[in-house]
Amino acid sequence: MKNALILLLLCPYILLSQNFLSKKNINLPLQLSEASGLYAADPDSLWWINDSGNAPDLFITDSKGNLISRVEVPFVENKDWEDLTADDEGNIYIGDFGNNANERKDLRIYKYNRFDHRLDTIQFSYEDQKAFPPNAPFNRYDLEAMIWYRDSLHLFTKDRVGKGMKYTKHYILPAASGTYQARLVDSLALKKRVVTGAAIHPANGKLVLLTYNYRLFLGFIPFTPADVYIIDDFADNHLLTGSITKKRLARKIRPTQFEAIDFVLPNLLLAGSEKVLFFRQKGKYVKLY
Predict the structure, then answer these.
(1) Is the pLDDT assigned to residue 54 strictly greater than 80?
(2) Can you give the three-state secondary structure of 76-87, one letter per residue?
């Protein structure tokens, strides 16, 4: 009886997701050549950002990838924007925290209200980083993934250490303007996968981590398999301690860089990839169930 009720409640979302999945891949606007973050305000109001060195702009598209508008965030620069998230009061959080060399001391998150256009800044450092950069075995302070959850910001780092097992570290920050040390909570080892995006759905409570790996097929052909890790049934703020399942996102003999993800519906994700040599930027819908 309980399972039947859950299925009944999910039916509208399942049917709606079928409409989106009639075309699993969409082209993103040419202006989004380095799509690195996504916030889905609703299925036809998708907010995107570009990666480092681009203008400090938010791009809004519909579910088919058509550009609706472009919003300039005033008085800031895009040093290395890497992810987007949002709270339930209209605030969008823009993560200017890309840190490839593990040496930045100006990590920040812009808090921009999409209704009244108020802008605040959250500055932070990692409580366990003592050297800038640290020695090579400890280069785990790059960052491309962030969510808002329970009035706080949750950060998931990108590992820059060698091959094999990769670790993402989970930190928590207050979602208010100020200067803070990000508090380390947990870490998670992923085999040959680095974390480049994250999302959580407030209704179903599922956390997803977007991941990929870069390697050369046959020694010279770029191959970047991408997956989504779905984490459920975690305890309190220990988001990496729940049950984990992996869902395949892409397996193609060609370069891809999936770096943006969010829930469009409770059972449907949209992941965005950057433009790479010979291939344009795209979005890919992924059905969870």
Answers:
(1) yes
(2) CCCCCEEEEEEC
